[in-house]
UniProtKB/TrEMBL annotation, chains A, B, C:
Transmembrane segment boundaries: 6-24, 31-48, 60-81, 88-111, 117-138, 150-172, 178-196
Name listed for the protein in its UniProt record: Putative membrane protein YeiH
Keyword Transmembrane helix: yes
Keywords linked to the UniProt accession: Cell membrane, Membrane, Transmembrane, Transmembrane helix
Pfam families (UniProt xref): Gly_transporter
Top-rank taxon: Bacteria
Lineage: Bacteria, Bacillati, Actinomycetota, Actinomycetes, Micrococcales
Major subcellular location class: membrane
Compartments, record wording: Cell membrane
Length: 215, 215, 215
């Protein structure tokens, strides 16, 4: 793993840990709960990825440096998180930033482990959304992965797919990576801002028929 | 893995993916959420099984063909799922069908990986119920595995045990497999239809004593 | 694994299985659900630990003897659990006892697998709290790990850290292990009894400012 990849991975852990600690603050957990939840959200997606790849002990356990971002996030939330009504917004921004970084680093790590490009992109997606699902299940909310406002899985899958493609054709470098991350982040935030909607899981023609008849 | 096993495994993935997509439709998730949830439910039990077996990358990632059943299920639910009150019934039928197939294929895969017959049957059970637990936890409902109507874990465990026994004594073939699958499916559906009840986890003698005294 | 370690591990499985079966009784699950939930809670933390260590099939599957404690717990709860209002108290005691044993045995197993002392302590923590998180997520409650009354993660982390330190400097023996287990159990129970409180995840200065102004 290069220094750039490590820095990107640690930054992603930090962003997700912030989203976990902010949730802990919103739910009035204590500071230890904040550290535990931040750690689970920050490291969960990557551990899941490394378990699937199956090449020995996950990064997060092999290198203790991965424990620092959750500690930093807990301290920052304790020190600066002030008004409750801003938690939800900040949580969404940190979640989008973590997703934008992890869909890239997750895909790269999977490719380096020898997975085929399709599987690598799926693993990038899992890295990018795994921590958030843990956070949402703990919060007893419908996970954003399944029930998002705006684009969520699509943005992460696009980033993972572009990374996989760029690596395959040899176009991946720091600039490409930055471009993909900005694209994923922007797509997520814009889709939230303008409330883009995706069709529902079921068309439910009969209800519409009934409505048409009633109308 | 033989063609029969692969076909059975893919059919099981499809049935579980249908149950996930039907839940997504009932909860009014969007079509991407339906695909994500169907994929998690369809592939979750098998990935869990493969992680425990620990022989490299799980099947679902090694062969992209495993991604097709969830896509098909999402399309079918989008196109045909019409009236909400029938979702619950259809979900139960697809779940039972997936369970009937996975308790067999999961046990066989575990035996081929060299596990002892008891552990293989337990892994067959995990394959058969793992995806459903993910679905129910996401839905914030008590998982059927722990709080079923009718027989659930017992039916899956019976199927896994029979498979393990049949493989051990060399009686396993397509006919035996079909017989076990039909038995498990029928047991699940009949126990639901006739509301078979299993004793509660605690006898609670004092409450009964009190009731007897009061009566 | 020595006989002492195996006995300690099985006792930990039994205590966690009791907490799972007691929850099943409280939620009026049936007796099969009690067995399933007890098994998941008793074995979940250890399986998670073994998956991370990544040395072949988890203990719980390799040795069928690990299935006995959950069966025993299910029978005991069915036979003796009587009055509902005592379930919560008993559940907490069994959970604390399981945690006290697993933070030691989990750390030792991770050290034997060659992990560094910090990672081993984290894995001891995961062993000690993993089963309980599964139990609480199934119960749709905020997991104790994130939102405890009293000390929870801190007690487990202290026990895991002391075990890791004692092993590293060669002071680990049956007496040391017993001492650590008693310390962790006592810390958990005393913190509950006297309602020790840890600062919240966020200081929320503005609310306090407002309160000060209002006062």
């Amino acid at each position: 793993m290069t220094w750039v990849q490590l820095a990107m991975d640690l930054a992603g852990v930090f962003f997700f840990a912030m989203s976990g600690s902010l949730l802990a603050a919103r739910r009035r957990f204590d500071i230890v709960g904040s550290l535990m939840l931040g750690t689970c959200v920050g490291l969960g997606g990557g551990i899941l990825r490394d378990l699937v790849i199956g090449q020995g002990v996950p990064n997060a356990f092999a290198s203790p440096v991965y424990l620092l971002p959750p500690v930093l996030a807990t301290v920052l939330v304790y020190r600066f998180a002030a008004s409750e009504h801003r938690y939800a917004g900040a949580l969404t921004v940190f979640d989008a930033a973590g997703m934008a970084l992890f869909c890239i680093s997750g895909t790269q790590i999977a490719l380096e482990a020898g997975l085929n490009p399709v599987a690598a992109a799926i693993l990038g997606l899992i890295s990018a959304v795994g921590g958030g699902v843990i956070r949402d299940v703990v919060a007893n909310e419908d996970p954003q992965l399944f029930h998002p406002r705006g684009l969520y899985a699509i943005a992460a899958l696009l980033g993972a797919g572009l990374t996989s493609a760029a690596e395959s054709i040899g176009w991946m470098n720091a600039g490409t990576g930055l471009g993909i991350a900005v694209l994923v982040f922007a797509l997520r935030m814009v889709s939230l801002r303008y409330r883009w909607e995706i069709p529902l899981a079921a068309r439910r023609p009969r209800e519409r028929d009934r409505a048409a008849t009633a109308g």
